[in-house]
Inverse folding.
């Protein structure tokens, strides 16, 4: 039996707040809505929050600044819901610690789907704590301690770079990772040329783990932004 997930909505647009409140409640979530960044931070310190829906253009502070502050002490998934649709805005929010990004106008079905992804990420993070050194997702298994990955119980023949990339994505399953974050983690810097190299490694990794590379199951591309491993 699941306990109700509690969602905090930080949004200054009254109409959108109302819409989110109604649809989240009818989908079985417990919801709190606030209209300023300050009230959002206060709500987070007061009560356990499972998922945060955040608008970037708030009257008292910028959403990206809020993400940076909150991330210092709160690990709840943050889904940005913003009218800012530029890649640079998405990247700034994701690099600051947001988990996902939805551009307004959005569909409620899409919002619910993103929330379910975030929920699976919470469950996965909890089970990862229990099992420690192993990661399973669909037919994929990674034994971090042994440094080996398996698909359909068969050992994958990965280059060290492909393995590193797979581990990074798996450890952040459900979360969109930006090119800058990935190249920073893998090469320690992030030059434009690294993004091109990353695409090459990603293509070769996909050939090894995806049944159909044109319709990847495990690793999703976010054009202009980065990649995400989906929780199957
Ligand atoms: Ca706003």
């Amino acid at each position: 039996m699941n306990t109700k997930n509690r969602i905090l909505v930080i949004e200054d647009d009254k109409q959108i707040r109302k819409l989110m409140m109604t649809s989240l409640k009818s989908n079985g979530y417990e919801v709190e809505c606030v209209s300023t960044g300050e009230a959002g931070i206060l709500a987070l310190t007061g009560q356990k929050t499972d998922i945060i829906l955040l608008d970037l253009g708030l009257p008292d502070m910028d959403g990206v600044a809020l993400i940076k502050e909150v991330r210092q002490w709160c690990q709840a998934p943050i889904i940005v819901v913003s009218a800012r649709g530029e890649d640079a805005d998405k990247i700034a929010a994701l690099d600051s610690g947001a988990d996902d990004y939805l551009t307004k106008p959005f569909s409620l079905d899409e919002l619910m789907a993103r929330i379910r992804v975030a929920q699976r990420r919470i469950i996965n993070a909890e089970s990862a704590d229990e099992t420690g050194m192993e990661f399973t997702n669909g037919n994929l298994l990674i034994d971090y301690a042994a440094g080996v990955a398996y698909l359909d119980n068969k050992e994958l023949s990965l280059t060290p770079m492909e393995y590193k990339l797979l581990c990074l994505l798996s450890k952040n399953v459900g979360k969109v990772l930006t090119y800058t974050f990935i190249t920073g983690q893998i090469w320690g810097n992030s030059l434009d040329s690294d993004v091109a190299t990353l695409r090459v490694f990603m293509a070769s990794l996909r050939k090894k783990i995806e049944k159909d590379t044109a319709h990847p199951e495990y690793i999703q591309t976010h054009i202009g932004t980065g990649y995400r491993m989906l929780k199957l």
User: Anything to note?
Assistant: DSSP finds eight helices and twelve strands in the chain. The two ends are 21 Å apart (CA to CA). The mean pLDDT is 91.
